[in-house]
């Protein structure tokens, strides 16, 4: 399973990358705004800065919602760096654009996916990745894990090559559930990656090992 970090913050990206387990980055307009990155030039520069830190795919989201605009913007984003993946929303013109990009060798991430039907459309259109938003499904009292389960089954039934990139991850449990189900990628905030480290018995066990070493080597 690949690990992407879901942020536009360069310090967090560096910290995850330094851990040696990072395979890529996803961003979106909200994450750019949260990090104070505004204006087209600054946003494009931030994508290049991210690509220079991480040796892996970096999703860059289009703002346009019409076919011509999505294509124009997507081609520009893809020209920034070989690792850029164009993030396209799950809307009618987005599906058309996914097909266009797929036919023209530009890799894509179909975002804002909340149902198995949408996931089928994204795969049919040739998306490289599809991003089901687990946490936002949980937020409305549905179960994001169920959607991942459905998608894994459907994609396996037909041999779709689109990779399932589980997004809107809110906890280490989401990551473990995705791994059990066979999601290809999880994109998570840094804190969920770090939370995977924690176990009280590890802390207790390490403290005892160190105390025993100290006793024997006093
Ligand atoms: O990758 C999508 C993600 O950024 C959305 O996460 O926490 O805003 O639902 P969240």
Report on this model:
The protein has 218 residues and is α/β, with parallel strands linked by helices. Helices cover 53% and strands 17% of the residues. It contains eleven helices and eight strands. It has an eight-stranded parallel β-barrel, surrounded by six helices. Helix 6 links the parallel strand 5 and strand 6. Helix 6 runs parallel beside helix 8 and helix 8 packs parallel to helix 9. The longest helix is centred in the C-terminal third of the chain and has 17 residues. The radius of gyration is 19 Å and the shape is globular. The termini are far apart. The relative contact order is 0.12. The mean pLDDT is 97. The structure holds SN-glycerol-3-phosphate (G3P).
Give a concise summary.
By secondary structure, the chain is α/β, with parallel strands linked by helices. It has helices spanning 10-18, 29-34, 40-53, 67-78, 92-103, 116-124, 134-139, 144-158, 172-181, 190-195, 200-216, and strands at 2-6, 24-26, 57-61, 84-89, 108-113, 129-132, 163-166, 185-188.
């Amino acid at each position: 399973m690949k690990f992407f970090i879901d942020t536009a913050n360069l310090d967090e990206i560096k910290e995850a990358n330094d851990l040696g387990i990072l395979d890529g980055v996803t961003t979106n307009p909200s994450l750019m705004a949260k990090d104070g990155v505004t204006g087209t030039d600054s946003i494009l520069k931030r994508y290049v800065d991210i690509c220079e830190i991480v040796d892996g795919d970096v999703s860059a989201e289009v703002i346009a919602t019409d076919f011509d605009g999505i294509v124009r913007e997507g081609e520009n984003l893809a020209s920034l760096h070989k690792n850029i993946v164009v993030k396209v929303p799950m809307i009618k013109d987005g599906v058309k654009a996914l097909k266009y990009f797929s036919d023209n060798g530009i890799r894509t991430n179909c975002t804002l996916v909340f149902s198995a039907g949408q996931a089928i459309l994204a795969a049919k259109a040739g998306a490289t990745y599809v991003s089901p938003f687990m946490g936002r499904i949980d937020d409305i009292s549905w179960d994001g894990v169920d959607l991942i389960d459905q998608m894994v089954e459907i994609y396996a039934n037909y041999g779709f090559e689109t990779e399932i990139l589980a997004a809107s991850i809110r906890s280490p449990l989401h990551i473990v559930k995705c791994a059990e189900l066979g999601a290809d990628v999880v994109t998570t905030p840094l804190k969920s990656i770090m939370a995977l480290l924690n176990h009280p018995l590890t802390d207790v066990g390490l403290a005892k090992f160190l105390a025993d070493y100290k006793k024997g080597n006093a």
